[in-house]
Amino acid sequence: MSTENKLNLGIAYHGNRMPHHAREDLISIARNGFDTVVHMLSHTDWDRHKLVMKDIVSMSEQFGLDVWVDNWGLGGPPGDKSHFLAYYPEAHARFSDGTLAPVHACLNSPEFRKFTYDWIDAVRFIGGKTIFWDEPHLPTKKVDGKVYYACTCDRCKKLFEERYNRPMPEIADEDVIKFGVDSVVDYFKDVTAYSASFGIKNIVCVMLGTYGMSLSAADAICTIPTMQSIGSDPYWLKWKKGNPDFDVYDFVYNGTKENLDLCERFGKEHNIWIQTYSTPKGEEDDIILAAEAAYDAGARTILAWGYYGSESNDYGAKNPEVTWARTCDAFARLRNRHRDELLAAARKKKGIIV
């Protein structure tokens, strides 16, 4: 099958570090037709589960699954908390009201860049061949109606003043937003060049609308030659809540189309994510609508977050069994549909009418 016709279906797997349990889950993932599994490698995994993760990555590949390694919480959310800032408190990001961003690292920190290199070395140790850079963004907070941004540490203030010949303002303006995007892009140019030097593929997923890096600002990250795939997660639940007229299919279709148009302009691969975590009881069929919408919009690398509706987390689906069944159903429908399309095209070339 040619690359352009290939369908890649994936699932995020986390919350378990017991190999005998992981084996059964990975068999289930493989038997249900998934091609890719995304494994987290948080700071805790790096410290406490590195050998276990090496076994889990190897096991995944033995079952025919491609593995993406997620930088889960490495310098801040999404994901587990990083221990890095306990050792390098000066590397904390700071909000524009002067307060500390307690769990976010400054992307311009040389110590954090070095820490990321060391994490990439850990990815290599566990056998990772692809890194999934998960939802990069810069934090904001709202106080008394004002939105404060990060990072405004002394290093970032100096860089901003050198570039714009003025102090950083308290409230973000166009220059601040551009500086934030440039900081994200510079970080990824640096760290993906390092990972790519070892033959590691780099994939990123950006959120639909966040300060610092959103799909609308992703043109800049598309210019990075060592970032091969640009994705997004048109998760619908927060938009649907309290809105009886909300259309899941339309929302996911439009978000996917925007992502694919961006990738086409820059010659990048894509990845589109389907929400299964937090699924309310009785709304599991939305997973099928969303998966079909992503496919109809043209996506062929489609992944779900996460396995069993992310049951191991407090934000897990309310009925994990039904959610997992619908997830498998949704992706099986895509697999069968894709095969039927390929078969129809092959028959058409031969002039066979069925």
Total beta strand runs: 12
- Please state the CA-atom Rg, rounded to the nearest Å: 21 Å
Shape annotation: globular
Report the sheet with the most strands, covering strand number, pairing sense and barrel closure. Answer: 8 strands, parallel, barrel
SSE series: EHEHHEHEEHEEEHHEHEHHEHEH
Mean pLDDT: 94
- Flag low-confidence runs: none
The helix content, as a percent range, equals 40-55%
Biggest sheet, strands in spatial order? 1-2-3-6-9-10-11-12
What is the rounded distance between the termini? 22 Å
Which structural class do you get from the secondary structure elements? alpha/beta
Percent strand equals 15-25%
Number of alpha- plus pi-helical segments: 12
What report would you give on this structure?
By secondary structure, the protein is an alpha/beta fold. The chain has twelve helices and twelve strands. An eight-stranded parallel beta barrel has the order 1-2-3-6-9-10-11-12, surrounded by five helices. A hairpin with a 5-residue loop joins β4 and β5 (100-105). It starts with 7 loop residues before the first strand and ends with a helix.
Keyword list:
alpha/beta; 8-stranded parallel beta barrel; 354 residues; two-stranded antiparallel sheet; globular
Task: Give the topology.
Elements: E1 8-13, H1 19-31, E2 36-40, H2 43-48, H3 50-62, E3 66-70, H4 84-87, E4 92-94, E5 100-105, H5 110-126, E6 130-134, E7 140-143, E8 146-149, H6 154-164, H7 174-196, E9 201-206, H8 219-222, E10 229-232, H9 237-240, H10 248-266, E11 269-275, H11 286-296, E12 301-305, H12 320-350
Parallel strand pairs: 1-2, 1-12, 2-3, 3-6, 6-9, 9-10, 10-11, 11-12
Antiparallel strand pairs: 4-5, 7-8
